[in-house]
From TrEMBL:
Keywords: Hydrolase. This is Metal-dependent hydrolase. One of its GO terms (molecular function) is hydrolase activity. Signal peptide: none annotated. SUPFAM superfamilies: HD-domain/PDEase-like.
Length: 205
């Protein structure tokens, strides 16, 4: 996704939320976060892939502006040593919406959407299912992109010794493989599920 497309998606999200005054300075702050040097996967590349995924599935969203804004914020805070990244990102999103005078109900829904990307359980609400499936679409990417993703994750956790990282990583991927189905959005399941299972089995070894 080119810069212009990302900014158009940003403006569209705020328009869908009932305000035409999108905050370009806030978008610049988010872009700076996604460009932090300690990131290798949770970067603008990942954000753009998510936004492209939403563009393909937009008609399936009940509230597309809220899903889009949640995607913009879902990895806004990313500290590999932290355990509250999603919570801090969700809080930032909610406050940004309240500052823009978006309804508190919408702000709270976006907060909940961001929190769903903790991936502790498969969500029940339709927009959360779509958001999580888009975030996890990388698992069903073509093999070369999936291999790049795995390398990028390892770079982010370069401080973790192999004998600790590798079993922990296999447990995480194994938990996704155990989901039946992995993707709850029918169109994403149709295009990504089979490849995701192949990729995960290969990665787990």
């Amino acid at each position: 996704m080119q810069l212009e497309a990302r900014r158009a998606a940003w403006q569209d999200a705020w328009r869908d939320l009932g305000t035409t005054a999108s905050d370009d300075a806030l978008l610049a702050q988010l872009e700076t976060r996604y460009a932090e040097p300690h990131r290798a996967y949770h970067t603008l590349q990942h954000l753009d892939e998510c936004l492209e995924g939403l563009a393909r599935e937009r008609t399936r969203a009940l509230r597309p502006g809220e899903v889009a804004l949640a995607l913009f914020f879902h990895d806004a805070i990313y500290d590999v040593h932290g355990h509250d990244n999603e919570e801090r990102s969700a809080d930032w999103a909610r406050q940004a919406m309240l500052d823009a005078r978006v309804s508190p109900d919408a702000a709270q829904r976006v907060h909940a959407l961001v929190m769903a990307t903790r991936h502790q359980a498969q969500p029940q609400e339709a927009d959360a299912q779509l958001l999580v499936d888009i975030d996890l679409s990388i698992l069903g990417a073509p093999a070369p992109r999936f291999a790049e993703y795995e390398r990028q994750i390892r770079i982010e956790y370069a401080h973790v010794p192999p004998d600790v990282f590798e079993p922990r990583r296999k447990r995480i991927l194994g938990a996704f493989l155990a989901r039946e189905p992995l993707y709850l959005t029918p169109s994403i399941r149709a295009t990504r599920e089979e490849q995701a299972r192949h990729n995960l089995r290969q990665a787990i070894g």
